Amino acid sequence: MNVAASRQPAADNTPAIRHLGLCDYRPVWHRMQDYTARRAGPADDALWVLEHRPVFTLGMNGKPEHLLAPGDIPVVEVDRGGQVTYHGPGQLLVYPLLDLRARGLGIRGLVELLEQSVIDWLGARGVTARARRDAPGVYVDGAKIAALGLRVKRGCSYHGVSFNVDMDLEPFSRINPCGYAGMAVTQVRDLGIAADLDTVARGWLPGLLARLERAAKQKT
To answer: How many structural domains compose the chain?
Structure first.
């Protein structure tokens, strides 16, 4: 993924978009924590767009038995909700660092907004997808294509959504994805959509920003 210059937030507090490229997991996680602790207000809202080197992450309520055979892929216990998931090259991550109180959003509202933005992107390309209330994320014919995991601190969110684009799905067989044994996973490439991470990001992010804007207007 190309690293683009940061864009300053607009007067209406449109989040700045920061493209971070291919990153190790731990430094980005700690950076999110620090950013959230130090941020001054809604003007600091940002979307971090990136991909990670191979890693399994285990949420605060995660059960180690859902790690079946991690092998040489590191496991990181993190401060988000949810169980275990995998991140690796070819998977698009968007971390929304948002002041939810200022935007009039609760955590459930943010989850639904993120899910629907992925559903919209897929729908525009002829793929029917849906969300599940019992297992947050986005699914195509029962297979998971996007996973959600969030943390809210001081009214502000971090962590976010992972969207499988064009990656090696084998590591998902080493875990019970999101705590569900035998859960199938899929990706954009396997749905017959020819798009790399940059293309997906360019098509997806405007819809996500539009949904955030609509949510803010509904608050007022």
So the answer is: 1
- 3-class DSSP state for residue 39? coil
Q: What is the CATH number of the domain that holds 25?
A: 3.30.930.10
pLDDT at 4 over 60: no
Q: What is the mean pLDDT of the chain?
A: 92
Burial class, 58, CB count within 10 angstroms (exposed 0-12 / middle 13-18 / buried 19+): buried
Residues 6+ apart with CB under 8 A from 133: none
- Is there a contact between 1 and 197 (Cβ–Cβ < 8 Å)? yes
9 occurs within a structural domain: no
* CB atoms near residue 83 (< 10 Å): 22
Q: Which residues contact 180 (CB under 8 A, 6 or more apart)?
A: 135
Active-site residue list: 178
- Residues 165 and 196 sit within 8 Å (Cβ to Cβ): yes
